[in-house]
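Subject: sequence -> structure tokens, single chain

Hey, anyone have a minute? Need the predicted structure for the following. Not urgent.
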Amino acid sequence: MSSFSGLNTASTALWGAQRGLDVTGQNIANVNTAGYSRQRVDLAAMGGTAVPAVHSVSTAVDGGVDASKVRRVRDALLEARAQLEVSTGSRLTAEAEALSGVEDAFREPGDSGIQAMLSDVWSAFSELSDSPRTEAARSAVLERLDVLADGVRATRAALDQQWDQTRDGVQALVADVNTAAASVAELNGAIRQATLAGLPVNELADRRDALVLQLSTSIGATGVPRADGVVDVTVGGTSLVSGSTSTGIRLAGSDDADGVGTDAPRLVTAPGGTTLRPGGTAAGQLTALTQTVPGYRADLDAFARSVATTFNTAHTAGYDDDGNPGQPLFDDGAGGTAVTAANLTLRPLTPQQVAAARTKPADAGNAPSADGDNADALAQLSLAPNGLDATYRKLVVALGVQAAVATRKVEVQSVVTAQVDAARESVSGVSLDEEMTNMLSFQHAYSAAARMVSAIDQALDTLINRTGTVGR
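Reply:
Had a minute. Here:
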């Protein structure tokens, strides 16, 4: 190695150490930056030609070090696993939140729930059976039946409101997904151009990968890296981002919960109209729109019809205070409108029209009946094995079990996601202890390279200024 080539080797060593210090400083500066991946200088030895030197007297070892390549430290398998796990966690969380909202709508257990209102109705009929001639007892029956109907309608209204709010949430999510997908496509184009121009793209790639992870959370997207540094994004096998081109999505289907059966809400591409199979938060919210909330609405509607049928049947089997046959207590849909939880309504009866008696008085129309057997029969409906109480308890218990299972799944998935995040952080996260060690290493390397330059300078000074001066 000649002295002049040694200067080149020393200068590359200085450059390599300086490059390492610069990258270490960048890592330390971004230790708390979300989505930042630590960077490393790829040091590679230069030299090693297969063509021998013409006048070489020894094997060449010069060339120095190449420090031009700086790479992000990432594990592709962990990144793909993270996309999968955050998608699953977001879906389960959305489903659990939907069930929690249904629980809030039913307000069980509590004094304002339908179960408590039913208990008040049974108590009112029981008190009426003991005092069938008391107008206050008759009025109490009608009041508590009216409160029950109001409670059922309020629960149905809360479920309808939850459905509308969930659909609005999906609409907002769609807008966010379209914005993020367009940004990913734009960053893909910038990364491709920068790569062709030989410019650094690590920070751009970090921003893009953070957006891809955001899409995984929102809609269950997965990123597919390409050789040119570009990442394609797919959702359930449908392309969302291809290179620098993105495809929008929109929410299709009914905007009313009553139309779910024939035109269920769904996500489709725009343009194209291809139905997506999303994951993440979108999947959980669509499950709430198409299954969870409509399912419990249907159960509540069936319960409301059972309330109307049960009370009407039992009440019409008795006689009121004037000896007339009992009338239906609730509107039974005879006018062509089916009974639902939304329209369950107590008919406008007077206290005297409450059919507390089982038998008609002998002098009907003149002497009121003191018989309270029909009121007692109505009170005993609470003990029926397949009666209103049993049906409603079954509904509430099923809801509680389903909500508890959903919450447990979220807790388990949270542990899995945290483990994957920790594994990703251990690979791509910045460790200050490691960076301090690297900083000292590059600092000493820089000092040694500088000392090497000084040594070569002294050798050249001797060669140039002192050679041939012996004996002068």
